[in-house]
Amino acid sequence: MEENQVEGRNAVLELLESNKDINKIFVQAGEKHGSIMKAIGKAKSKGIVIVEVQKRKLDEMATSNNHQGIIAIVPPFEYVEVEDILEEAKIRQEEPFILILDGIEDPHNLGSIIRTAETAGVHGVIIPKRRAVAVNATVSKTSAGAVEYMKIARVNNINDTIQYLKDNGVWICGTDMDTDTIYYNQDYTMPIAIVIGNEGKRHE
Q1: Whole-model pTM?
Q2: Yes or no: is domain 4-74 CATH 2.30.30.180?
Q3: What is the pLDDT of residues 72-86, one digit of tens each?
Q4: End-to-end CA distance of the chain
Q5: pLDDT for 147-185, tens place per residue?
Q6: Domain edges within the chain
Q7: Which residues pair with 99 in a beta bridge?
Q8: Cβ(102)–Cβ(195) under 8 Å?
């Protein structure tokens, strides 16, 4: 996996706050106000290289349609192991609360889910290595920087991972668009992993 990038003002600010490694930051020439200035100030205090370029250059670099005048170049996203997610719950002295995302292909969907998960206190997100989107610049921007705080594990086999979680006392809760059960009537205080995904598709 090559270098990745984080685009947009809020996403870059969250990245700077997280103390993750940043190789350099590209800023649009003339953008020296508001949150851009705040990001520049934080970057300078950390000794991060800042490169001022024309808007056309940022447009060429961007993977989204709204870089907002700033792009940070970062090392590849650091995934964790499933064990690290369980350990995070122990550190917080809480029962494990995990999301398992099966076949999420749209980076905007993945980013939105991660943003919501971080707000809800989820300890970690598990995604498959195949037939699913990985964490990239679009995911980071859509998550509003939440990927920098969320532990994300990328696994070879979702079924094996589910069995591993069961063996470690975690209850598995599936989701279905056609169910009659109302999600907010359920008890989520137990050790639980919620399986979400397939974006409307069904397994054969």
Answers
A1: 0.72
A2: no
A3: 998 888 899 999 999
A4: 31
A5: 988 999 999 999 999 999 999 999 998 766 555 554 555
A6: 4-74, 82-200
A7: 125, 194
A8: yes
